[in-house]
């Protein structure tokens, strides 16, 4: 444990499944914490062994959904403060110092935001809304919870917040394959959730025009072109993600899922 954290217990909560490519880097960046809680939902790679070897407490829990799984992980933490991380994130040194300052200092905010650097094919993407990408991640246990949604879960907290200096390093898409795998899963989850909420999609307005306008807005107006070739690819693929999500929503609304054409 880092001496800076001696007076207050802090837990780090992660949910994982088959994250052996990322997990060691993540855990190495948080070894200063009093407790590392890893909730595994059935990994078949070396994730569990890596977590245990690096001193994490591993809890097996079948998949409950994004929000419910994260709430479960938080409930298993023994610290007064909890830092919620994804398995493909790491804490930089400046953020580590900020966390030490907050949890060891006088009572103040109960929940704090953290800026996140998103990496695509190894490049930090600075524009088009990908930075600072602030997330509510550090909080006193019991005051924050994840809202139950199928995807893009959000954290709920009633009270004042602040933002910490430093960054979470988010290594989300090291390869094109990893991006398309995420895109397919999240577009399906997003379409399913929208359909449950009674939303419908139009082929022209949503499947064709919306992604085109999304690309123009992000790549042009929000300066995505300043992120080089990686920025071009990411904004093109993000537009395709939008098209894919609304195409799936259209198919659900039209009752076409699973139907064969004559």
UniProtKB/TrEMBL annotation:
GO terms, molecular function: transferase activity
Domain Glycosyltransferase 2-like: residue ranges: 11-114
UniProt keyword Nucleotide-binding present: no
Pfam families from the UniProt entry: Glycos_transf_2
InterPro entries: Glyco_trans_2-like (IPR001173), Nucleotide-diphossugar_trans (IPR029044)
Keyword Transferase annotated: yes
Keywords: Transferase
PANTHER family: GLYCOSYLTRANSFERASE, POLY-BETA-1,6-N-ACETYL-D-GLUCOSAMINE SYNTHASE
Family as reported in the entry's similarity comment: Belongs to the glycosyltransferase 2 family. WaaE/KdtX subfamily.
Name the UniProt record assigns to this protein: Glycosyltransferase involved in cell wall biosynthesis
Species for this entry: Granulicella aggregans
Taxonomy of the source species: Bacteria, Pseudomonadati, Acidobacteriota, Terriglobia, Terriglobales
